[in-house]
Amino acid sequence: MERLYSLQGLRGAAVLGVVLFHMASVEAKYSGGDLLLPALVDFFQLGVDLFFVISGFVMVIVTRGRFQSAVQTQRFAFNRLSRIYPNYWLYFFITLGVTLALPGVVNTSHGSSNLLMSFFLLPNDRVLLVMVAWSLVFELWFYLVFTGLLLFKEKHLPLLLALWACGLIAFNLLANWQDFNPALKIMLHPYALEFIMGSALALFFYSKHSVKVPTPWVWATLMAALTVGFGLIYVFKLFFTEGLLRMVSVGVIFGALIGSLALLERRKLIRVPQFLIFTGDMSYTIYLSHLLVLGVIGHVWQRIGAWPDSVWDNLFFLLLMMSAVICYGALAYRFFEKPVLDWATAFCNRTFAVKRAAGQPDSAK
Q1: DSSP label at residue 334
Q2: Residue 304 belongs to what domain range?
Q3: What is the pLDDT of residues 4-28, one digit of tens each?
Q4: 293 and 269 in contact (C-beta within 8 Å)?
């Protein structure tokens, strides 16, 4: 599978943005009254939207040339589930243990969770035990739909994605997804448009048309996404809504960002900082664990004490929180997530073996 470092770098930026967004509430809770993080950090909750667009792009990458194959479909489903569940279950049980032993460390303001539904990441009316895992419920739905798309001919993928998108847009123009049961809320939510945008973008990226786009146009698209696009998102506060306007607008803007960076990388015109690539590698672990880490650091800071008449304590507090999140993420990725993924890959290769011609490399991961 081709690896685009720009995608990993954007994953890293997205998860750091989500961490910053949640750090603002932790600072407000434990800093003694004064605040350093501005309201601008509200923008960074859109890191999840960026994850969704990237996810759609990646799904096209990992399934190229693997449609209408029972073995490849099994491999795809197994790899997606093994990517989501083992790491998630670790933090499910950690959160459950902390909730039982030290309920004040985690946010319990939303009421009790349905543990069985939380464990399997199934839609339900209660908040999930691992609160940030709500996005994983959407990811699983996207993966399920994409597994179904693998049953068709690959040349029909653009049409199938277009039909899915048109169906969602038509529904959301005529009805409200919030009026339905939890499962239908996931299926009918316009979040899927961001995933579809990423998939469509990848289809364009791998088409003959992408190489014909002049490089100045690519740079202009990148600049427009970062300035005009991000500016419009902030001016209209799209991060506070969950409707069709947000998903279409943010999907297009983030799609322009991802597509332009991917094209510039392929043309060897940019280099992604190594720190962002590494953060992207461990972004899933950071995403799942950061609320727990922030809660622990907040309680430690509460014991140390804050000085409301100075911003220096806030600065140190924020640096301490971010450092702790990244350090824990690096350790947990190195000693848990990566070994589990390596084991899952080896198991998949043994169990769902693909017959290949002599000398043909096994690229199905």
Answers
A1: I
A2: 5-351
A3: 999 999 999 999 999 999 999 998 8
A4: no
